[in-house]
Design a protein that fits this description.
1 helix; about 15% helix; Thrombin, subunit H
């Protein structure tokens, strides 16, 4: 799972009268995500999501809300994917693995752990990220 994201997405709430609402992803995995939605979204709502995450721009995913917490007109929701391309699911898993590998190596004090070919590179904002 990729944590600590703050990436905007195009979100369409499906149903008899589909509508778009602004949303921001906070976590992402190959099976689902959590996000902050600037509207009231109930549990089991069907969603269409277009990612705008570096490395995953324009990826379309469908899912449904499995949990929701509300505060005024803002909802924090957990979404389980019902449709995601297997190549994109693999790419998300690889990004999460590379991020976790980096964190593990950092915790052991390993130097020179950052490289451009890392699948998490585009999302990385860690202080160890190469500056070139």
């Amino acid at each position: 799972m990729i944590d600590d994201l703050a990436e905007p997405v195009e979100l369409c709430v499906m149903g008899d009268h589909p509508y778009e609402v602004p949303a921001v992803i906070t976590t992402l995995s190959a099976g689902g995500l959590s996000m902050l939605v600037f509207a009231h979204v109930a549990g089991d709502t069907r969603l269409k999501i277009v990612l705008d995450v570096p490395g995953l721009e324009g990826v379309e995913i469908e899912g449904h809300v499995v949990w929701a917490k509300h505060k005024g007109n803002i909802s924090t929701v957990g979404v389980q994917f019902s449709r995601i391309d297997s190549a994109h699911a693999h790419q998300i898993n690889k990004m999460a693995e590379d991020d976790q590998k980096c964190e593990t190596e950092r915790s052991f004090g390993v130097k020179d752990i950052c490289y451009r070919e890392c699948s998490y590179w585009a999302l990385c904002s860690k202080p160890v990220k190469l500056k070139h």
